[in-house]
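Hi, here's the filled form for the chain we discussed.

Project: internal
Contact: R.S.
Residues: 147
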Amino acid sequence: MIVYLGADHRGFDLKEQIGSFLKESGYETHDLGAKTILPDDDYPDYARMVAERVSRDPENSRGILFCGSGVGMDIAANKFTRVRSALAASPDQAMASRSGDNTNILSLAADFLNLEMAKKIVSVWLQTPFSNEERYKRRVEKLNSFN
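And the returned structure, exactly as it came back:
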């Protein structure tokens, strides 16, 4: 599994730290930007790059997006076919998004999370499998039919 990363200027520092954490943890990552802090950049550009990649292979790739509130990235990512993005503020919320909704993109609010909490959220999200219960599969299929 490859994990694509994307962040605007407000999420840049947290993306860099989580990217290092993921590499140290043995994950294959691909950083789609920003590569430097660009105060006038726009979060939809990075959300698009990550969501397009995940959309191509939603079962074998994941994405993690970072912006100030996390909301903009989450909204943008969910515009793409076969993408199910979740904005998670806690490890429990991340786990629920994976087990019940089979999310493949995680959006994080850099303005509201410290590094240790972000690491916990990311770890739980990456390690939690989809439950495969019939009711959850049915719901995910309904979501997939919307695109």
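Let me know if anything looks off before we file it.
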